[in-house]
Amino acid sequence: MADFAISDLTPAAPAEERGTLEVRASALEHIAQRAAEQITGTVAQSSAMDRLRGKGYPHASVTVQRSRAWVKLDVAASWPCPVTELATRVRDHVLAETTRLSGLDVRSVDVNIHIATHHDERSSSRSRVR
User: Fold this and answer.
1) Rounded to two decimals, what is the model's pTM?
2) Could you give all domains of the chain from N- to C-terminal order, each with its CATH number?
3) Do 101 and 31 meet the contact criterion of CB atoms below 8 Å apart?
4) Is the N-terminal amide bond of 82 cis, ω within 30° of 0?
5) Does the pLDDT at position 63 exceed 80?
6) How far apart are CA 79 and CA 116, in angstroms?
7) Alpha helices in the chain (DSSP H)
8) Backbone angles phi, psi at 27, to 5 degrees
């Protein structure tokens, strides 16, 4: 058993010298999609095949380079809706949440609103078999 004093221990290196956190694009896509679902006016829309392929709405595509990210987001909404106002609310919320949860500098969130022809309201899409 080795004997040493607390003063013998070297302090941890500053955070910037300890390493980096790598945030994968797929994790950021998941965060962006969940954040978009939280906005009133958006609807979850996907068929069984879409779910198997990882498609449907909302759907995010993210590019990450070093500590910066760019998000492209497709969201479904019921018609009629205030499209411009909805897109702005989605953009602002997704930008805030992806930045907060990832720690990355999210440069932009481009939102495309698609009008849902058949949709599952968020409340029904979240129900689970118990």
Assistant:
1) 0.71
2) 23-118 (3.30.70.1350)
3) yes
4) no
5) yes
6) 7
7) 15-18, 25-37, 48-53, 83-102, 122-125
8) -65, -40
